[in-house]
Amino acid sequence: xxxxxxxxxxxxxxxxxxxxxxxxxxxxxxxxxxxxxxxxxxxxxxxxxxxxxxxxxxxxxxxxxxxxxxxxxxxxxxxxxxxxxxxxxxxxxxxxxxxxxxxxxxxxxxxxxxxxxxxxxxxxxxxxxxxxxxxxxxxxxxxxxxxxxxxxxxxxxxxxxxxxxxxxxxxxxxxxxxxxxxxxxxxxxxxxxxxxxxxxxxxxxxxxxxxxxxxxxxxxxxxxxxxxxxxxxxxxxxxxxxxxxxxxxxxxxxxxxxxxxxxxxxxxxxxxxxxxxxx
Length: 279
Hints:
By secondary structure, the protein is mainly alpha-helical. The chain has a single domain, classed as MetI-like fold, CATH 1.10.3720. Helix content is 70%, strand content 0%. The longest helix has 32 residues, at 70-101. It is globular, with a radius of gyration of 23 Å.
């Protein structure tokens, strides 16, 4: 007899096979990226790196770190992510919880406006934002890269939190009212802990978007000392566009933090909503 909340063995096997197939599909480009980075620098470019290079070495990594100034660029990217991601989640969760406290008609209007705001192309906002930051003398600093977190990075994030908070049983909110908790206390003590998987997913998404953001740094940053990793990669590719191993080594180092964050978020999400952890 199958235990409650646990899928039968054939279904688990099919899910495992499906997960393995998806893993192979998505890991294949990463494997080629890794093997290409292990080739010796200075070799002629190839259409696709061989699965097993003729000569394996880490010289491309040393060259990428020194020529691309990746350590300083990684520190700048980490500052942007360390400040921007928590700030974005804080604003989004507060806005999403506030929507649950408003009348339904007002909430529907705010959500409709949020969806409308998502239709505005990001490039349409570059010029007014550039003029604003230029007037405030904030260009060539990391502030313009962190500033979108003040509005939750995306209008979609508060809506996601709103839906998550709405899924909490009404009895939990009634108990908080009986305990004479303020809305802020209810948000912090009861609501936010119950949507941790949503927070983990949005944190991973925000980190990846922030970590890989290349358009905003290209607009606001000019001094190499404040380059983030995407700009450092672009500068490294411009130095010697034919030196593939060096560029691929830099790409591997840039990709690893994002993969780590996604893996941790996926583990937290599956632990909460997987077959064995489903509520």
